[in-house]
Amino acid sequence: MLNIFKKKETKTESPRQEKGILVFDNTTKVIRAESLLKAGGWQIEVKGPPPDIRSGCDLVIEFPLLEELPIIRKLSEANIKPVQVVPVSSALLEPVDLLQEKEYGNYLMVRAANMKITVDRNTHLIVNVSGGGCPDVPYLAEQMVNKSLGAAPQPRDIGYTLCAYALQIAYERIIKLCSV
Amino acid sequence: MFGIVGTIPEIDFPLTYGKVAVEGNQINIGDEKVNINRGTPAMIAAAVKTLQYMDKPNPFCYLVGDIGNGDGCKRLYEHLIEHITDNPFRTLALHYFQPNVGLFKRLLAKIQSMSTKPTLIGDAGFMYVAKMGGDASSFDLFTPDAGELAYLADEKAPHPFYTRGFILHEDNLIPDLIQRAYKHNNASTYLLVKGATDYIAYKGSIIAKVDSPNVEVLEAIGGTGDTLTGIVSALIASGHDIENATVTAAKVNRQAGLIAQPTPATQIYDIIKEIPVALEEILRI
Questions:
Q1: Number of domains in chain A
Q2: Confidence label for A180 from pLDDT (cuts 50, 70 and 90)
């Protein structure tokens, strides 16, 4: 009986599984909000927006609707306010989850969707970033190439778009494969 | 007249337009100078090298600084909507840009209102937004790689980031993905699909393949797709028909890569420098 007063260790989804989405004005805010909410124990997922609110290079956060108030409070404290909070009425698009790896001698390339990152396995130096079509891709390449995996800025910290998010996924895989 | 639209990865690069020139490893436009690196600068430099070889004038470019927040692109979209019809473009290549369906559709409507519609080439962000908005078939040529082709083939994906795994899977053959992209009206009239083998398709049928010279590491080098788009756009602007231009450009890009003797760490300018020699070797055959 006293269990109802026991402090929850993680914030779980509501029993009714009703979901809402948080819409932000750029992908950088989505990435910051994702990190903040996951660190807070909320069960959230990054997904594609429904067609009626899609404008271009978009990403939203799906969350348990009953947790709306504490989530908004947490985001407001961090000054990351969503521009819209919308109940989910249909299945949302899932981000890419299929990665491809290719070896060129000492070099390893990982591709996530349209983004590729290549690393020298001996030195852990990022030697190339390729693919993509959004304007932060050449910028990300300039900031990351010729830096070691441990020292280079992460795409999620300096990128803005879905291409940056895809590069982050490839980056995390290559970190794992190179055991940095 | 040949026009190029794209972005420069510098936050304070101003909205700039005019004829470009290449000097060493820099592009000059108006009072601005840009280092030749991956992205639109690599595409422009490859186009200029090709145009110089063909003895044709350099392209007229519209550029803006944007590092991904879209602010620069919004300003350039608005400028283009007002002014794209000021010049009699016969070829327009649209490159790295922030996808924004609403602004893109307004720009496309202006381009389509031109008395002579230019040959329209789309790559990178402009290819994404054209497919996203259901306007792929308004383009004459797209130049996707395998990952981007999977995106075109996935009728439900609004961005390559959402391409579904069963379509992205490498067991899927490029010809099947090409057919699927055309079936759902998500392809341009011609496709130049870059990869280990380059495929050229026209309205759903593969009309040519280019697989030599085979320089495997080119896939890892940032900018090799940009140079291909630059070369093919310049050949079309020089009067080549699209089929001939795509096949020639695929061969020239591979040959320039071969001459540069690249490793996965090679940077794109080292390949761009070899384009004139590659053109000479391919076109004299």
A1: 2
A2: low
Q: State how far residue A56 is from chain B, nearest Cα, in angstroms.
A: 5
Give the domain extent around A43. 8-87
Q: Which of residues 140-159 of B touch A (CB under 8 A)?
A: 145, 147-148, 151, 156-159
User: Is B285 exposed, middle or buried, given 0-12, 13-18 or 19+ CB atoms closer than 10 A?
Assistant: exposed
Q: Tell me whether B171 touches chain A (CB under 8 Å).
A: no
What pLDDT digit, counting tens, does each position of A54-65 carry? 766 678 899 998
> What does DSSP say about strands B91-94 and A107-112: parallel, antiparallel, or unpaired?
unpaired
Q: How far apart are CA A150 and CA B231, in angstroms?
A: 37
Using CB atoms, which residue from A26, A57, A116 is nearest to B220? Answer: A116
Same domain, A105 and A169: yes
Interface confidence (ipTM) of the complex:
0.89
Give CA–CA dist B249/B235, Å, rounded.
Answer: 8
Name the pTM for this structure: 0.88
Locate the domains of chain B by residue range. Answer: 2-283
Residues in chain A closer than 8 A to B264 (CB atoms): 104, 107, 109, 118, 127-128
Give the one of A26, A96, A159 whose C-beta lies nearest to B163's C-beta.
A96
User: If you classify domain B2-283 with CATH, what class do you get?
Assistant: alpha beta
Q: For all residues of chain B together, what is the average pLDDT?
A: 95
Q: In chain B, which residue's Cα lies nearest the Cα of A111?
A: B147
Model confidence at A15, in pLDDT bands (50, 70, 90)? very low
